[in-house]
């Protein structure tokens, strides 16, 4: 089958090969025919080495498709079922799950070091234990979440990561209050989803911050009340909050420099939400006096900060009701053979989300 493979960390291009085989099928596992997958910035971060990932590997973790085969003991799925790939499935039994923090369940990471694929030259891993830039993938049954028939594959794919992460950051983690002021730094697919979440929560002012003009323009269509470049943020802070700072600031880039900017633009007693996935050696510096005196809440948000499966259901309900726009997030579409074009679109900021169609 075909799959896009990164051979070495740091390479900027993927090689689309037709000699890749999905492996690991057996009890408790399912085989999925991927129909659509989104390109998330985390895929680029894994390729560059910002996020740890064994190589060679197949990127992709935001996918949807159909069940081809189910292993022994799998009773809730059958061939032909439409599913979204969940890269961080809750086990339901660990301490984190029992506390109601299933987004912190580590069970899904247990397979990250086990090869998902193989080629004649050896084993190939799947990013985050999945690897959706492939025609087929074999995963634990818990990673395959049923999707209703009326949810298209491209929409389902977005629900698998970016939309759930952004919406959840605003709704679950920050619990944005009606009438509040919000700034979102980084307005790709996840940032735009955070903007939609803040709008749903009733925020009065939502400022989108991004260096790319096209993304700023898109943010206004999705609910931002103002869109500025990073250099214009101080003026926006002064105009909207009289210099006090925003009630909520979302950092959706994953860098200490932007996190520091986000902290500085959060009002005293306000909330900074860290959504972007950054490098382990990129340290955010705060002095102990400001940490104590400003009393700003710093809330990391992993995968939307809530029960992933309930978040999926909520997203589908909001989409059906027309309360959120998911189709509009897909600004580009490419076949798997042109995956490197999608990478360029992400790097230049010309795309909110590129859908790779298989």
Helical percentage = 25-40%
The number of distinct β-strands equals 19
Instruction: Supply the number of helical segments.
Output: 11
How would you sum up the major sheet?
Answer: 7 strands, mixed
Q: Note the overall shape.
A: globular
Structural class: alpha/beta
Low-confidence stretches: none
List keywords for this structure.
358 residues, alpha/beta, six-stranded parallel sheet, 28% helix, 26% strand
Describe the structure.
- Helix content is 28%, strand content 26%.
- It is α/β, with parallel strands linked by helices and 358 residues long.
- The strands form 4 sheets. Strands 4, 6, 7, 10, 11, 18 and 19 form a 7-stranded mixed beta sheet that branches. Strands 14-13-12-15-16-17 form a 6-stranded parallel beta sheet, with helices on both faces. The protein has a 4-stranded mixed beta sheet with strand order 3-8-9-5, with no helix packed on it.
- Helix 9 links the parallel strand 16 and strand 17.
- The longest helix has 13 residues, at 162-174.
- The N and C termini lie close together (11 Å).
């Amino acid at each position: 089958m075909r799959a896009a493979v990164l051979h070495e960390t740091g390479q900027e291009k993927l090689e689309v090969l037709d000699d890749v085989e999905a492996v690991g099928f057996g009890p408790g596992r399912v085989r999925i025919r991927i129909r659509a997958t989104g390109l998330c910035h985390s895929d680029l971060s894994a390729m560059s080495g910002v996020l740890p990932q064994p190589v060679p590997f197949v990127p992709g973790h935001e996918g949807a498709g159909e069940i081809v085969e189910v292993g022994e003991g799998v009773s809730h799925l059958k061939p032909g079922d439409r599913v979204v790939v969940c890269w961080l499935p809750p086990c339901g039994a660990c301490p984190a799950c029992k506390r109601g923090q299933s987004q912190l369940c580590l069970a899904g990471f247990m397979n990250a070091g086990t090869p998902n694929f193989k080629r004649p030259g050896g084993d190939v891993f799947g990013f985050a234990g999945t690897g959706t830039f492939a025609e087929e993938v074999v995963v634990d049954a818990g990673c395959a979440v049923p999707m209703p028939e009326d949810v298209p594959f491209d929409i389902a794919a977005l629900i698998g990561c970016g939309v759930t992460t952004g919406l959840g950051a605003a709704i679950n983690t920050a619990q944005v209050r009606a009438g509040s002021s919000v700034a979102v730094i980084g307005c790709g697919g996840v940032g735009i989803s955070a903007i939609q979440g803040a709008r749903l929560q009733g925020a009065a002012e939502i400022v989108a911050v991004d260096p790319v003009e096209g993304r700023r323009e898109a943010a206004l269509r999705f609910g931002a009340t103002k869109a500025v470049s990073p250099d214009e943020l101080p003026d926006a802070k002064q105009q909207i909050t009289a210099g006090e700072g925003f009630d909520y600031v979302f950092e959706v880039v994953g860098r200490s420099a932007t996190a520091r900017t986000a902290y500085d633009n959060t009002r005293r007693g306000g909330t900074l939400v860290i959504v972007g996935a950054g490098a382990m050696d990129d340290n955010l510096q705060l002095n102990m006096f400001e940490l104590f005196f400003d009393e700003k809440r710093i809330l990391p948000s992993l995968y939307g900060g809530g029960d992933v499966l309930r978040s999926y259901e909520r997203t589908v309900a909001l989409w059906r009701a027309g309360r959120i726009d998911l189709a509009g997030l897909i600004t580009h579409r490419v076949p798997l053979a042109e995956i490197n074009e999608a990478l360029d679109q992400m790097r230049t900021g010309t795309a909110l989300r590129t859908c790779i169609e298989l």
